[in-house]
Amino acid sequence: MTMIWIVEDEERISAVLTAYLTQAGFATRSFTDGQNIPAAAAAELPDLILLDLMLPGLDGIEICRQIRRSLTIPIVMLTARVEEIDRLVGLELGADDYICKPFSPREVVARVKAVLRRSTTSTATATTSLGKRCCHAGIELDHDRYEARLHQHLLDLTPREFKLLGILMENPGRVYSREQLMQHLYHEDIHSSDRMIDTHVKNLRKKLASIQPEQEFIQALYGIGYKFNMGD
Ligand code: CA
Predict the structure, then answer these.
(1) Closest residue by Cα to residue 4 from 36, 44, 33
(2) Which of 105, 114, 144, 160 would be 126's cystine partner, CB 3.0–4.6 Å?
């Protein structure tokens, strides 16, 4: 059974989310304090975490940061104001989605399903096309293991960064507009700001540059979009 963690200190919200997610067939566990979440997540590996921003103990930003250092568990952040979403995206936390309060529980369930579908689609595609690998310019994407390596160094990518790199690498040199990348990455989640693409690209570049700083793997074309650059 798919396990969703609800990390939310407002018990009324937490109870509503629990009810809707349970009805949608998910197992849930709720927490009202952030303190032990990173360690507990690493130990128990839930399938997805709904994470409130303002929490006692440890706030959502710090929890997301700590989890992302070592894990790719999908994280959906819950925030109180739409302006906070821009700030969170700017912080490059690597969350997979953001939902603004007040939300309808139905919307949350739909977004949870969408994020889970995306994070498992890659795995499912990989199992049907056994041994599916993509390799360009020293980067190897292993869709079976959901692992990306640059010159044998394992890259610590979020599910969405992995997918974005996969899209760009599928057709090296082809230019994708932000809108096209948005559609590939977010499907029906029209709410997501297309600045998220820039943030994902920025994070990907940083991770690639930590291993091979001299090469610009992902090239921006001003006013058009991005492409994977094979180099020479
Ligand atoms: Ca709160």
Answers:
(1) 44
(2) 144
CATH code linked to domain 129-228: 1.10.10.10
Measured in angstroms, how far is the CA atom of residue 53 from the centroid of ligand 1? Answer: 6
Instruction: Please state which of the four CATH numbers 3.40.30.10, 3.40.630.30, 2.60.120.620, 3.40.50.2300 is assigned to the domain occupying 3-125.
Output: 3.40.50.2300
Q: How far is the CA of 119 from the centre of ligand 1 (A)?
A: 26
Neighbours of ion ligand 1 (CB under 5 A): 9, 52, 54
Strand, coil or helix: 121:
helix
Mean pLDDT per block of 10 residues along the chain (232 residues) reads 95 96 96 95 93 94 90 89 76 83 90 85 41 74 84 88 90 84 72 76 93 90 87 62
Task: Give residue 74 CA to ligand 1 midpoint distance, Å.
Answer: 20
62 CA to middle of ligand 1, Å? 14
In the numeric block, which tokens belong to residue 104?
């309808």
Whether this prediction's pTM lies above 0.70 is answered by no
β-pairing, 225-228 vs 218-221, is antiparallel
d(Cα 214, Cα 212) in Å, to the nearest integer?
Answer: 6
